Amino acid sequence: MKTRKPLFTVALVLLAASLGGLVGGSSPAFAVVSIASTGTTTIAYGGLVRGNPEPVLLVGFVQFEMTVVNDPDFGAPPSVQLGIDFSHVAGVGTKTRTRYVTSGDQYLVRPLVARDVVDVTFAIYPADATGFANARPALASFTLNYNVKAETFASGTVSPSVDVSLP
Amino acid sequence: MPLQFHPGLPVQDPLKVWTFNGTIPPKLLIGRYHEPILFRHNNELPPDKTQNGGFGRHTISTHEHNGHHGAENDGFTGAYFFPGQFYDYHYPIVLAGLNSINTGATDPKAATPDDSGGKINIPGDWRETMSTHWFHDHMFSFTSQNVYKGNAGMFNIYSALDRGNEGSTDGVNFQLPSGTAKSWGNLEYDVNLMLADKAFDRDGQLFFDIFQTDGFLGDVMTVNLGYKPYFEVERRKYRFRILNGAVARFFKIALSDGSTMLQIANDGNLLPTVVPLTQLDEQGIAERYDIVIDFSRYSVGQKVWMVNLAEHQNGRLPARDLSIAEALSGQSPDPCVGKFLEFRIVRNPATPDQSKVPTNLIPNPVLPTGQVRERIFEFGRGANQRTNDPITSFFGPWGVRTDNGGGGMLAADFGTISAAPKSRTREIWTLRNGGGGWDHPVHIHFEEGQILSRNGKLANVPAWERGRKDVYRLRPGGEVKITMQFRDFQGMFMEHCHNTTHEDNAMLLRREIDDGGGAFLRALSTPIPTPQGVRFQPPGDILQTAF
Distance between CA B444 and CA B400 in Å, rounded? Predict the structure, then answer.
């Protein structure tokens, strides 16, 4: 598990991120010819996860690493390798003020399309020694926009809904 | 049980399915540290190699993945044996480092369970303790077909740390979910799951396309060779040892309600710290993920399913990792996406759940300092056929470049020595994916490695890969840098892509662990098995930088 930042630090970083907009960006690859572009960005994230034992208010930012990969050998359409880092998201219990941390970085393969909606779940749990035993899921629904012709990332947003609702 | 994947499916022709003892489900081997196992594998397959049901080869070599054993017991791809013969594999089940670390067996964490609830100290490094292995055929150029036919099983190794007795409270045992009836090795709440996709012909008989060299996919998900299984569970914690036993398919597992799982081990090695997850990472072929699910969150009568999120369009790599909702929607064109294992919560625990999941499990071994040799291995296409021995070489579309780039892309030849790390040294290897249209789960026999970086950064190594591993998914266009120590045993081993279609189509290299003129010849002779016995011949090729 990663070391978590205190909530106030996360909030400060979130502020800086929101002022600064997207960080990183696309750059040409040089190591492997099949990599069309790489980029990083952060997307502010927040919301209220309902449920027992208490609702949890999440705030922070999610860091993305995108790598657009070509397939010159087989000619398949390019894909996007997504690395999604939730470690800068933290929460607080609305009743007990218990601090919550997150776990569940995601590494996903997605097709390169102009607009891709990516729903991912991750775990939140009290930031104490055995809190992980009471981990709960939260949802993040991102809309990622790409410049398909240039094979680069363009922009991203996140839905305010963070509750997991599955059959 | 008869050879049936489901009670509603036909009984399989014995030529189509080759399992240990000819039965389903797959066998589970149980062992404990410092209790050696003699594994006698009798080859009772048809003497006529054409009697294979259309795929598979009757010569076999059984690999204990990833045993810390002598090379002669590793199941080398060229050390195969014929019908009517048997091979005795000796698994000493020792902790790595036994000749250099804790040689006096004084460390209480380096220990094995006895039969009366206690433990016996053993030499070696307790940080090298392993738990979940498997064994499978490794026949040169026929591994995919033979494993697909069922020539595979799982292997649980027990230790004082991972004892398989959740009730033992001696301060060393982690008390992971298992049971208490026996002093060690309880399975009531510790369950092996071997996942594999299968295909069937119009008669319902197992089918395999031997001409598919990109990666063969099935369209039917099986768990322990069962289609549409369900599992009745109590409202308590269970450990699941999940093996990807497919040919070319990656899995990505979640629970249907999105609830959390605790990943405790990767490739048979308990992690330094437990990782709570709602979706496991993509699981490449041969990777093992051990997880704990706490069913006490559910009510009696409820159901929850394991769901596969990784959608394939071909056998080269996953095309798309879906959300849980997408996977459950039934919209994926891949029939292996969605629910594949049903859990029925049927009762409260018969006895109190005494199991625990500690935050901290097994830290990584301390790496020795000093000079470290580095090698690069690039996995790609367009291999050169440098050798043409009809027994030891095979040419296919895939290959591996090494010799730090100077040797060209090599096709498979188990007579060629590609690398020969010196015994009692540590090396750093860079495993590089040479293309963007495929992924490779690369398996390095014998030694557990630690991942130092992904694509140049330690930060890219996720929490569940921070322990020891023996299979490394490269990801498209990706690169993994690992370090390994070579010790205790020497001899002839391999590394290869564990997409077994790629492996069988030339993405495999032989390496040796060089003891510098000690007990072994330098270089070792290549075995050439025949029905009358084995002859040995000098290596066909030794790369300039191997030694």
Answer: 13
